[in-house]
Amino acid sequence: MSDQQTGGHQRIFVWDLPTRIFHWLLVASYAGAWLTFDDNRYLYEHTFAGYTFFGLLSFRLLWGMVGSRHARFRAFAYDWPSVSAYLRALLTGKAARHAGHNPAGSWAIFLMIGLGFVVSIAGLFTLGGEEQHGPFKGVMAFAAGTNIKEIHESAAWLLLALTILHVIGVIAESFLHRENLVLAMVTGYKFGSKGEAADSPYANIAVIMILTVAGSGFFYFKGYLNAAPDKPYIPFQGPLLPDNATWREECGECHLAYHPTLLPARSWQKLMADQAEHFGDDLALDEATTLEITAFLVKNAAESRLSEPAWKISSTTPPDQTPLRITDTPYWKKKHKGIPETIWKLPKVKDKGNCGACHLDAEQGTFEDSGMRLPKAIQ
Amino acid sequence: MKIHILSIALCAAMSAHIAAADVVDNLLNTYQAAGAKDFSAGNGDDLWHQSHADPEQAGKTRSCVTCHGKDLRAKGKHVRTGKVIDPMAPSVNKERLTDAKFIEKWFKRNCKWVVGRECTPQEKGDLLSYLRKQ
Lengths: 379, 134
Known about the structure:
The structure holds 2 protein chains of 2 kinds.
Chain A lengths: L2 H4 L3 E4 L3 H20 L6 H24 L13 H12 L11 H27 L12 H35 L4 H7 L1 E4 L10 H19 L23 H7 L13 H9 L13 H13 L8 H9 L13 H7 L4 H4 L35
Antiparallel strand pairs in A: 1-2
Chain B lengths: L1 H32 L7 H9 L2 E2 L7 E2 L2 H4 L7 E2 L6 E2 L14 H15 L6 H11 L3
Antiparallel strand pairs in B: 1-2, 3-4
């Protein structure tokens, strides 16, 4: 093999420090987002991963214009003929070495950055719409938020597919050119000719990046520092829902005063009409009390869409069904199906209607994603 | 101004205490007017602890103790929901036996659940006579 083909045997500096820090922090935040997306309890952590991911991508846009030699977009802005030529060469095992990104890799990178922005921005709107949190809180209704979530999720899966292609490409090229490209993204050095080397490591900018991420992490999570077992920290506070002293007093005597937003109006009407046979008890409420509580329940029922559970319960309960227990609604069943029987049988849980055993904000009725804690099995 | 509010609060607190005795006496009078004879705290004690067959679970029984617990001075626990119930004894819980409407509501609710029917004026008077001494 000639010197031209192997790219020379000199170790040259290619990836500046900010590019490498960007790459690995992006990997970390990306992995963090995937690890926390499925379990609603980690919404706050998932959101931090998202903010970090978004911030890093924004930095990369800037760095693509002002960064060092191989970090600049212009350095790897290949047209399609170069990409297809490279891919064809790859199949025959004769693909040329590139000090920076190769043509196929560069396209994967541009696509990943673009999709990354789609995922992050759709995520921010999902947070604002479906959860009513974050910078876009209140700009759209729950329903719109749920639609945007589809985009957020589809883009995330596409991005995952691209990421896998990217990793396969890196491995393939590492074998092809007998050079560990993963290690190169750690050390910054690759083999090449002297003329291809990058100029500066930009260590100062890398330090600022790390400090920014660490500092924002500290401020983001510092609420947990003051948390105690009896005073847990709920990062996302839900909306202040309507309250009524008579409702809270009367319904709260035997069980949690279930907020009106948790059942459709027709369910509350039936429950109050049948108060003489309330799950085996005669409530014996006088007429004035019954009227006041019924009015409060109906006015703020799930149809009011005052909270995320209200919107979900009102939109997923079939109109011909009148569930008398919150635990009979399709939404409740869907959200609780993964909980093992052992948890339900714990003395401190005891009953499926004991929402407060896991939901720290059950009294307020907000049922925020991040307000959930499964009790420890052994206590 | 402050003294004024304070004295109103004090009067209200005192009248609540006087009312506590009045509330029970008034209820006992109402029960006697409805045909009840002299009330007995001993009978109330028996009623409180009497077990009745549970119509929903064969072999199980219900009594007042099921939820209020064995010690009236301690907190009880709702047998189904697990909700904590404040102590029944007026000596440790000043709010007990101070609201006639509240008492009647719970008599109706709990007599139906425990005994399977509403309590008679005699039974209610006996229970109140027992509870006010705790």
